[in-house]
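Appendix C reproduces, verbatim, an entry submitted by the partner laboratory led by Prof. M.T., so that reviewers can inspect both the input and the predicted structure.
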Amino acid sequence: MAAIIFIALLHLHTSLFAQITGDAMKPKLSNWQSKQDRLVVDINLDNWDKTPQGIEIKMGRSRGVNVMFTDEKQFGAGNVAFSWGIGFSSQNFHSNGELIRDVNRDSSYFSSARLDTISYDLNKLSLNYLDIPLELRFRTNANAKGNRLKLAVGFKFGVLLNAHTKFDDGDVKFKTFHLKNISDIHYGLTGRLGFGHIGVSYFMSLTTLFNEGEGMKIFPYSIGISFTP
């Protein structure tokens, strides 16, 4: 399902391209004025593709954020552009899964055996990354109110800044840092579709949560609302 969402966004560029072709001969604004979406803020719901058996992600509580500062190189009249930048992303996964490390096998896994038998308020895994986003952007000309239909498809690469778990049962509260076996990088496909200053966004990781051979094959993804002030 996660991959299908991205493919659907990708195919939307066909209809946009028809509009863009017709606009290509119109005069271009100055370079600074015509640049779009220099700041992008996504408020996301985070989840896992291929969730381990017995583990339930509480997606309504698994909220994350993605912030990007970008520049772009426009082509033709500016309806098509290539962008690059720097960003920060935070993914938070609330679940009934306790992260357990198997020292003998140098691997980690999630188990619901203990948490399914007790009452608790909070159990989450948080991942924070420094990202480099790349996008191919398509946009129509602005309407009378200055709004445009916009589509961006791309790729981002990120380095893990911090990974920790947090648990709270009302009596005991603690965080665990320096998690083992978590991958130090992530990269994946991105998509954004919007009109004016608001839209929907998507990220699908092509890297697993754990290092190869050191844990379950879990692929994080995020779906969110995107703001481009």
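The radius of gyration is 20 Å. Additional entries are available on request from the coordinating office.
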